[in-house]
Design goal:
about 280 residues, globular
Length: about 280
């Protein structure tokens, strides 16, 4: 297959992920209903909890499938990106934190959001490992390079990559998430993925790529917990005044979607910086 045809196939797969698989995944998540009858429901904060849990897990499965297929054919970064394109739809269909606090009239749902964030962070890490495994099975057809040799997810080097992605991601999300608008919260998570992975690659080039996904998604747990500690019973007032702790604005599915969307870009930039550093050292 010629190089132009390879690129056409890669982009066709990505468009299918965004425009076909994504809407199906989004519809599955949209079936959940909030206690006030509105759309601000999540996996654990819904009057139709079974439907909400099933819809979320099914959406994650569709995203994983898309990521595995694309990674097998087009490489790791493309696989991560395909998963992120699918997850954009569920993320935008899921609740905003401001909406959840609004119908509850309190900050109590933040604890449930932290629990949900932990569950989704574990699921996202597993998804990343499956996509990574698929990428190693065959050479890519696109511009992605074969995955670098890296250590296991629980190695010290991956722990450094995880910490780098988490800390840098937290700073970027804190700078961007100023209010509870869904587009803004997704952008905060996506930029956290981009710069978190870029720094993670540079400071620990042998880190497992799954560690970058895990680092960003860990903020889905940290954000609601810190928000609860800082605001407590004032969460509703803070949310209405748009003065909530910035990381508290980002909903769990926003973090997961943003991580898979942004991390592959950060990996590309970080890899490019490493190559230039190595070329300079050899010169």
């Amino acid at each position: 297959m010629t190089s132009p045809m390879k690129e056409v196939l890669r982009w066709t797969l990505l468009v299918i992920a965004l425009m076909v698989v994504g809407p199906i995944a989004g519809r599955l998540v949209a079936m959940a209903e909030a206690p006030d009858g509105g759309p601000d429901a999540t996996m654990l904060l819904s009057t139709t909890r079974f439907v909400a849990i099933f819809g979320t897990l099914a959406a994650l499965a569709l995203s994983t499938g898309a990521g595995v297929v694309v990674a097998r054919l087009a490489g790791l970064r493309s696989g991560f990106f395909a998963a992120g394109l699918v997850l954009i739809w569920p993320a935008f269909q899921s609740a905003t934190v401001k909406g959840v606090i609004g119908w509850s009239r309190s900050g109590e749902p933040l604890i449930f959001l932290a629990i949900e964030g932990a569950l989704l962070a574990v699921a996202a890490t597993g998804m990343a490992l499956l996509i990574l495994r698929a990428a190693h099975k065959s050479p890519p057809i696109g511009p992605d390079q074969p995955p670098r040799e890296h250590d296991s997810l629980f190695s010290p080097t991956s722990l450094v990559g995880f910490a780098g992605a988490l800390l840098v991601g937290a700073v970027l999300a804190w700078l961007i998430a100023r209010e509870g608008l869904k587009g803004q919260t997704f952008a905060a998570a996506a930029f956290a993925g981009v710069f978190g992975a870029m720094v993670g690659c540079v400071v620990s080039h042998r880190s497992s790529p799954a560690a970058f996904i895990a680092g960003v998604c860990a903020l889905a747990v940290i954000g609601p917990i810190v928000t609860t500690v800082l605001h407590g019973s004032e969460a509703l007032v803070r949310a209405n005044a748009n003065t909530l702790f910035p990381l508290g604005w980002v909903a769990p599915l926003d973090w997961v979607a943003g991580a898979f969307f942004g991390v592959p870009m950060g990996m590309a930039w970080g890899g490019s910086m490493l190559e230039k550093r190595q070329a300079g050292a050899e010169a």
